[in-house]
Design brief:
CATH architecture of one domain in chain B: Sandwich
Distance between the termini of chain A: 14 Å
Order of helices and strands of chain A: EEEEEEEEEEE
Strand content of chain A: over 45%
Largest sheet of chain A: 5 strands, antiparallel
Structural class of chain B: mainly beta
CATH class of one domain in chain B: Mainly Beta
CATH topology of one domain in chain B: Jelly Rolls
Oligomer: heterodimer
Number of strands of chain A: 11
Helix content of chain A: under 10%
Shape of chain B: globular
Order of helices and strands of chain B: EEEEEEEEEEE
CATH topology of chain A: Jelly Rolls
Number of helices of chain A: 0
Strand content of chain B: over 45%
Largest sheet of chain B: 5 strands, antiparallel
Radius of gyration of chain B: 16 Å
CATH superfamily of chain A: Jelly Rolls
Distance between the termini of chain B: 31 Å
Number of strands of chain B: 11
Shape of chain A: globular
CATH architecture of chain A: Sandwich
Amino acid sequence: MATTIASLNITSTDLLSDSLSLTAIATLTNAGSATGVTQTTGLARKKSEATSLYILYDRSALSMPAASAHKIYIKNLSTTAAEFVTITIAGEELGRLYAGDWCFFPWSAHDDANDISITPSVSSALTIEHMLFFES
Amino acid sequence: MATATITLSSDIQSDNLAFTKDKILYKAGTEQPLDQTTGLNKIIFTATTNIVLLDSSAAGVGKAAKVYIANKSTDASEYVVITINAQVVGRLYAGDWMFIPWSQSDAAGNIELAPSVATALPVEYMTIHEGLTPVSA
């Protein structure tokens, strides 16, 4: 069985008076089962040079079941603090990934309009990395 | 300051994947660290009602807040549906976690959660942010 593990650590010694050290480890499985996810787009890079909306994951172009346990990773590789990409799901704004920020979240892919898109804040070169893990 | 680190490993492909990325969590467009947090919350849900987990705040609009949510159930079939402003993001199954930026695009940009079962489903969540608008008494 394929094994994919996503681990998160959030640490801080000064955010609170009690040091923060949070760890979460997820083995990525198909929805409602212990079987590991078996498909991925691979780790990809996209370089934008406009503030246009870019579709990263086009739901209608992907053969995958709806309402499952797909997962998405996105990282903004910019090193300029002011530069961000806005992430949207079917047009609804999720949030802004500023320089160096990353995110990891489930994707329901529940209908053909449920695309994952980004809109860069600058028209100069801005690169992101992204990856999708999905079940068949 | 707080640092968030992700490690991803996988043997799905013939070239195994393994990388780690960390990031100090900064305020929007700056290198000033986020300095406020809700702390780590834990709720055991006993109904399948869709609830507002995090209420969008005017002080957070367009900012760089980060949200962590984890389904702490150990029953593989149990999940929570995560929604933002009525748009379903995805399902967190038992053991799954998510870490996202939350720009609270408008007053309706709440993060909502609906458990799949009414039988004691534990969820942990936390926001690290740069300001919330206090609710008047």
